[in-house]
Amino acid sequence: MARNVLILYYSQFGNTAKLATSIHRETGADILRLRVPDDYFPDDMEETDKIFKRDNKLGQLPPIVTKLPNIQYYDTILIGGPVWDGKVASPVISLLKMIVNYQGKVAPFSIGWSDTGNYQADFIAHAGKLNVVSGYHVLTHATPKFSSASLASWLRKL
Ligand SMILES: Cc1cc2nc3c(=O)[nH]c(=O)nc-3n(C[C@H](O)[C@H](O)[C@H](O)COP(=O)(O)O)c2cc1C
């Protein structure tokens, strides 16, 4: 795997956080959790979905309130987030807009409930000129499920 690696992730209910922590443990990479304003998304999936759909309709994205480190220092960024409506969760899209000039490799990882949908394709669609490689996409209530072996295999290819 590449030498200087940064893990950036958004997690509303803790699943992506858990996955990001596993990746951190495996890689020793720097890690940072992205936050949106506390009151942006309700503490409920269905209500969050309403905000997500409203934002999509209005073409707006939640602001990221986390200060990013100097990303050019890293040769790879692993970007994690939950699957929302078969797509990339909007805080991750906000991040992609913040790093448009990043020159290194970008590798997505995601965790959904039962359907990954078009996560990888949607991520690429929002990534502009970023150099996006194949991601690690798992589900909590269907396959593919997380396993140390599949994670290690993905990390080896980066
Ligand atoms: C707005 C919204 C939409 C979602 N859409 C999907 C989906 O299309 N497919 C899926 O498998 N899970 C979906 N989920 C479930 C989350 O992807 C899943 O619970 C994920 O593990 C949550 O990650 P987190 O704990 O890091 O927030 C959705 C959740 C929310 C809040």
Structure overview:
The chain is α/β, with parallel strands linked by helices and 158 residues long. The protein has helices at residues 15-27, 45-58, 90-98, 119-126, 148-157; strands at 5-10, 30-34, 76-84, 87-88, 105-112, 131-132, 136-139. The chain has a single domain (5-157), classed as Rossmann fold (3-Layer(aba) Sandwich), CATH 3.40.50. The chain is 34% helix and 23% strand. Strands 1, 2, 3, 4, 5, 6 and 7 form a seven-stranded mixed sheet that branches. β5 (105-112), α4 (119-126) and β6 (131-132) form a beta-alpha-beta unit. The longest helix is centred in the N-terminal third of the chain and has 14 residues, at 45-58. It is globular and about 40 Å long. The mean pLDDT is 97.
